[in-house]
Specification:
CATH superfamily of the largest domain: SPOUT methyltransferase, trefoil knot domain
Order of helices and strands: HHEHEHEHEEHEHHH
Number of domains: 2
Largest sheet: 6 strands, parallel
CATH architecture of the largest domain: 3-Layer(aba) Sandwich
Oligomer: single chain
Number of helices: 9
Distance between the termini: 16 Å
CATH class of the largest domain: Alpha Beta
CATH topology of the largest domain: Alpha/beta knot
Strand order of the largest sheet: 3-2-1-5-4-6
């Protein structure tokens, strides 16, 4: 669908939502970013998986890339609290090992692959450069990232720890990293905001997800549009 048709469809469908909802969409879109994205490799605990989605929504990260190798990614709606409704979830599950295809797709989109791990001393939340798009990769709760993910990452990021426990829970780790890096990003001169075309597409998707009969409204619009 071209930009002109997308805009016309949006205007048509927005008449079925409240003005308050439209204003809320505009406010939140101004904080959304694709400069930072999240990659989840083989997460298997629905509670933690869903908590990460909440952190992405609350810090303005729009896209979540989900690698399903041995484990299927399930969302716990009681934990996610509807956050997945406002995010783009991109799943990789076509092969036995989907980590490299996911990494390659992200690199093709201009992302640096940044593995989050406590076992590599390279970058911290204060020192990691924010220039260039960043794909933050998080691993399973028990074993962390796979060897494939570690070996093919461009950079490594760790959270300093000062206790006896080996690592943070994945949902806590994601929340700490996303909050810190998005705050740094918004205080920088880096152009992290979405483009107008991206905002348009997401705005339309949010309106569709708000309406119960969105598919019927869209069919009615397209039928009218073809007659013009």
């Amino acid at each position: 669908m071209d930009k002109k048709t997308t805009r016309a469809l949006l205007e048509y469908m927005q008449q079925f939502i409240t003005e308050e909802r439209k204003q809320l969409f505009e406010k939140i879109l101004n904080y959304r970013t694709r400069h930072i994205t999240v990659v989840l490799e083989d997460i298997y605990q629905p509670h933690n998986a869903s908590a990460v989605l909440r952190s992405c929504d609350l810090t303005g990260v729009q896209d979540v890339h989900i690698i399903e190798n041995k484990n299927k990614y399930d969302v716990n709606p009681d934990v996610a609290l509807g956050s997945f409704k406002w995010l783009n979830l991109i799943k990789y599950n076509d092969t036995e090992d989907n980590t490299l295809p996911a990494f390659q797709k992200l690199k093709d989109q201009g992302y640096r692959i940044i593995a989050t791990t406590p076992h590599k001393d390279e970058q911290t939340l204060d020192t990691i450069p924010l220039e260039g798009k960043m794909a933050l990769v998080f691993g399973t709760e028990l074993t962390g990232l796979s060897k494939t993910a570690i070996d093919h990452a461009d950079e490594y990021l760790k959270i300093p720890m000062y206790g006896f426990t080996e690592s943070y829970n994945i949902s806590v780790s994601a929340a700490l990293i996303l909050f810190t890096l998005t705050e740094r990003l918004r205080q920088s001169d880096i152009p992290w905001q979405l483009s107008e075309k991206e905002k348009l597409d997401i705005r339309l998707e949010w309106v569709k997800r708000t309406l119960r009969k969105a598919d019927i409204y869209e069919k009615e619009f397209l039928k009218l549009h073809r007659k013009k």
